[in-house]
Amino acid sequence: MSDKPINVLFLCTHNSARSILAEATLNHIGRGRFKAFSAGSSPRENQQPNPLALATLQTAGISIDGLHSKSWDEFGKPDAPQMDLVITVCDNAAGEVCPFWPGHPATAHWGYPDPSDAEGNSEQKAEAFRQTLHAIKRRLELLVNLPAAGLDKLMLETHARGLAKS
Questions:
Q1: Residues 60-88: pLDDT tens digits?
Q2: CA separation for the pair 126, 128 (Å, rounded)
Q3: 150 with 73: CB under 8 angstroms?
Q4: Averaged pLDDT score across all residues of the chain
Q5: In whole angstroms, what is the distance from residue 1 CA to residue 153 CA?
Q6: At the N or C end, where does the chain have fewer CB atoms within 10 A?
Q7: pLDDT computed for residue 154 by the predictor
Q8: Contact at 8 Å (CB) between 54 and 67?
Q9: Which residues face 150 on adjacent strands?
Q10: 8 Å CB contact between 132 and 112
Q11: How crowded is the C-beta side of 98, counted as CA atoms within 13 Å?
Q12: Domains of the chain by start residue, with CATH
């Protein structure tokens, strides 16, 4: 890889919780080496990020500026940023046929339970989002701390897939 940031796309079904948490967190801790994006395979009409996801990020001191739900179709267009790594963060998106990604990026699957499905009172639901953010951040910290020599396409894919076991 060159001195340009490594573009990472996080995919989920609706692009409202896990992929949003991952995008914001990587942009926060990526130290300019990474540029994160997120999208959904089938966001609902007028889909917005889950308010609990946004609140969790803000509480953690992570910017929510510019976060919005969008379809993965945006990243298959000719003028879209070329991705170096595509990571699915939910089981539904992992099993779907992905569009053609220009440049044939490395791919990995990091499955997380959907915090939006948490039951209970408001504190229990908020805790589900905190736990998901913590799990995502732990893997992303390992990714951003890889040596630059380990970030060519093949090594990036190998490392990203290995982190799924972390």
A1: 999 999 999 999 988 888 888 999 999 99
A2: 5
A3: no
A4: 88
A5: 7
A6: C
A7: 64
A8: yes
A9: none
A10: yes
A11: 26
A12: 6-163 (3.40.50.2300)
- Rounded to 10 degrees, the C-alpha dihedral 128/139/41/6 comes to 140
Q: Indicate whether 161 pLDDT > 90.
A: no
What is the reported pLDDT for 107?
A: 87
Here the contacts of 98-107 (C-beta below 8 Å, separation 24 or greater) are: 98/11, 98/41, 98/72, 99/72, 99/73, 99/75, 100/76, 101/9, 101/75, 101/76, 102/76, 102/78, 105/7, 105/9, 105/153, 106/153, 106/154, 106/156, 106/157, 106/160, 107/157, 107/160
100: left (phi over 0), alpha (psi -120 to 50) or beta: beta
Please enumerate in sequence order all residues whose Cβ is within 8 A of that of 145, keeping only pairs 6 or more positions apart, or say none.
none
Residue identified by tokens 């093949």 is 154
CB atoms closer than 10 angstroms to residue 128: 20
Say if residues 68 and 74 touch (Cβ distance below 8 Å): no
Which tokens go with 35?
Answer: 């540029």
Q: Within 13 A of 141's CA, how many CA atoms are on the CB side? A: 7
Instruction: Tell me the C-alpha distance between 119 and 11, whole Å.
Output: 24
CA 150 to chain centre: 20
